[in-house]
Design goal:
Distance between the termini: 63 Å
Order of helices and strands: HHHHH
Oligomer: single chain
Number of helices: 5
Length: about 100
Amino acid sequence: TNQKIQRLDDVGFVWEPLEFTWDRSFEHLSTYKQQHGDTLVPKTFVTADGFKLGQWTSCQRAARKGQNTCCISEEQIKRLDELGFVWEPHTTVWNRGFQH
């Protein structure tokens, strides 16, 4: 019933857990970019609260290539693009080094 739905909403029930988890992960990436100036997260990077951001970013890259058990939607790709996500970190790092 609507009343039960409202009660669950009132206590913060998560209706879409995968989307919720992805959004929280994206927030970690956004914070990383604010602190470090880019999205070149080292593969072993773990946030202060224990989130394995480096693994998550690697998973997003692999998912976009269809190489992983992770899934990524077009909307999520768009959000990462808007943040300035680096899809090919090795190429980006090489190009930066070459330019110096």
